[in-house]
Specification:
heterodimer; A: about 110 residues; B: about 120 residues; about 0% helix; elongated
């Protein structure tokens, strides 16, 4: 597989559930990102990882917990979410933090919190 | 601080031209342009670095005015495949003159091309 793959594509969860989003890239990139895309709002940066180390948490509530076990995989663990957390969650990767070649995005996970 | 894009939406007929603008209130290291089709991942189009430059990509080109912290995306002789939402992503300059290494995106411009 090439590119950035996100699973699942769609997820419906209750406010008391715990679920995880997965992102995988086979591009040899060293930086990975989580973005939230809500209707009629700009893409919001959530977390940045560089060589598996978290370098940025953009004031994200603790009900979102990222994990980066290696440079190819990124997870977003979800628990006790709110309905306003419903959105498209996009994972992206880049060669490194210089961003010379831009981001490669995954197709996203469409999350609905009920 | 997110960049501001204009217009919010554009409707074209095939063969017509369009310009999408992106403006920032912060000093920029670079500007990126992406296109997202419905239900798909945003796709990287091009990057423009500080120093002011203009880049081309088939009939899609862009410019970056560093003094004004503005970028424009030019779509000429539009095709049906150009339809989608266009986002600019800006990379800010830090105190050392290099990048913060992350992108802040505008709200997007919806481009619709009709036959």
């Amino acid at each position: 597989e090439t590119g950035v793959t996100q699973t699942p594509r769609h997820l419906v969860m209750g406010m008391t559930n715990k679920k995880s989003l997965k992102c995988e890239q086979h591009l040899g990139h060293n930086a990975m990102y989580w973005y939230k895309q809500s209707a009629k709002k700009p893409l919001e940066l959530m977390f940045v990882y560089n060589f598996k180390e978290q370098t940025e948490n953009n004031s994200v509530p603790s009900r979102f917990s990222p994990e980066c076990p290696n440079s190819s995989h990124l997870f977003l663990h979800l628990h006790t979410l709110q309905p306003e957390d419903s959105a498209l969650y996009l994972c992206a990767s880049s060669q490194d933090r210089t961003l010379r070649w831009g981001y490669t995005f995954g197709s996203g996970t469409r999350l609905t919190v009920v | 601080q997110q960049p501001v894009q204009s217009p919010q939406a554009v409707i074209l007929r095939e063969g017509e031209d369009a310009v999408i603008n992106c403006s920032s209130s912060k000093a920029l290291y670079s500007v990126h342009w992406y296109r997202q089709k419905h239900g798909e991942a945003p796709v990287f189009l091009m990057i423009l670095l500080k120093g002011g430059e203009q880049k081309g990509h088939d009939k899609i080109s862009a410019s970056f005015n560093e003094k004004k912290q503005q970028s424009s995306l030019y779509l000429t002789a539009s095709q049906l495949s150009y339809s989608g939402t266009y986002f600019c992503g800006t990379e800010r300059v830090n105190a050392g003159g290099t990048s913060y290494g992350k992108l802040t995106f505008g709200q997007g411009t919806i481009l619709t091309v009709h036959p």
